[in-house]
Design goal:
Helix content is 31%, strand content 24%. By secondary structure, the chain is α/β, with parallel strands linked by helices. The strands form 2 sheets. It has a 6-stranded parallel beta sheet, with helices on both faces. It has a 5-stranded mixed beta sheet with strand order 8-9-7-10-11. It binds NADPH dihydro-nicotinamide-adenine-dinucleotide phosphate and oxaloacetate ion. This is L-aspartate dehydrogenase.
Length: 272
């Protein structure tokens, strides 16, 4: 019999994604993975949601979160991404970001990870099929396109709309609010289409990945359709994720993080 040392996980930010992931880890859904520490803005609020915090699970500052964790899962507002990313990478840990659009703005982190012996592992998050897109990228990809449809509440407040004084209030018909590249989408919608950034990193990069965003009052789910044409395959896939308590974020995101963590310790892993 061998007994492995548990994989120690830290979570930065306990909002819609972080709290769901923390609850599942505390429930012991993955044998060999423990929640070791969290970084939060308001410890009292966090303890009200999860009374187990502060005892066996430590509160840490964002810069100290990686001190006693092997993996740090970033579930923060985009503006706070870099601080925890740098602290985790500089300690040579595995960094699992959710605010993936910020990776496009901070490409130096990839070189930094190489220098420090760290790894950055982007979970599939609210999307699907990144394994197939990566396989396509081993050959020649001709085109990648993503069409996102969200209920207007899941898009309100995005910088792109605010800068153009676009209001989605009272919208009755689907309205295309953005048509551009994944890089432009990441800047204009940093908390709404991290999935486009992830897709671009798996495939042909942020400048060749096309993105349309629709505010659609006729849908109740956060819906993403990706279409890829390559020398080896053509694929078209759609995910319809039920919005979580944060209307911008689908309920599929936290389970995707759990699946990614499970893949780090399981004897059998299906899908690349
Ligand atoms: N890759 C993907 O597929 C997806 C990525 N995302 C992205 O993931 C990230 C997390 O999403 P989500 O959970 O929905 O976001 P939420 O807004 O629900 O949660 C963010 C959390 O961060 C906390 N926070 C704020 N300031 C600090 C601080 N200084 N230190 C520690 N914690 C802090 C907030 O606390 P408080 O509420 O108390 O202020 C809140 O609990 C976002 O960037 C989102 O855009 C989301 C969906 C899909
Ligand atoms: O949950 C979703 O539909 C996607 C999302 O918010 C994001 O990629 O930032």
């Amino acid at each position: 019999m061998t007994s492995k040392t548990p994989l120690r996980v830290g979570i930065a930010g306990l909002g819609a994604v972080g709290l769901d992931v923390a609850r599942r880890l505390i429930d012991g859904v993955i044998e060999g993975v423990t929640l070791t520490a969290v970084a939060v803005r308001d410890a009292d609020k966090a303890r009200r949601a999860l009374p187990q915090l502060g005892d066996l699970i430590a509160f840490r500052s964002m810069s100290a979160l990686a001190d006693d964790c092997d993996v740090v899962v970033e579930c923060l507002p985009p503006a706070l991404f870099r601080e925890v990313a740098v602290a985790t990478i500089d300690k040579g840990r595995l960094f699992m970001p959710l605010s993936v659009a910020q990776l496009l703005k901070n490409p130096d982190l990839i070189t930094r990870a190489k220098e420090k012996g760290a790894r950055i592992l982007v979970p599939t998050g609210a999307l699907l099929g990144l394994d197939a897109v990566r396989a396509a990228a081993e050959g020649t990809i001709h085109s990648v396109k993503m069409v996102t449809r969200k209920p207007p509440k899941g898009l309100e407040g995005a910088p792109y709309l605010v800068e153009r004084s676009v209001s989605l209030e009272g919208l009755k018909e689907p309205r295309k609010i953005f048509d551009g590249t994944a890089r432009e989408g990441a800047i204009g919608f940093p908390a709404n289409v991290n999935v486009a950034a992830a897709l671009s990193l798996a495939g042909v990069g942020p400048d060749r990945t096309q993105l349309e965003i629709w505010a659609d009052p006729t849908v109740t789910r956060n819906t993403h359709t990706i279409t890829v044409d390559s020398d080896a395959m053509r694929l078209s896939m759609t995910i319809e994720s039920i919005p979580s308590e944060n209307p911008r974020t689908g309920k599929s995101v936290a389970p995707s993080v759990i699946a990614a963590l499970r893949g780090l310790v399981s004897e059998l892993k299906v899908g690349s």
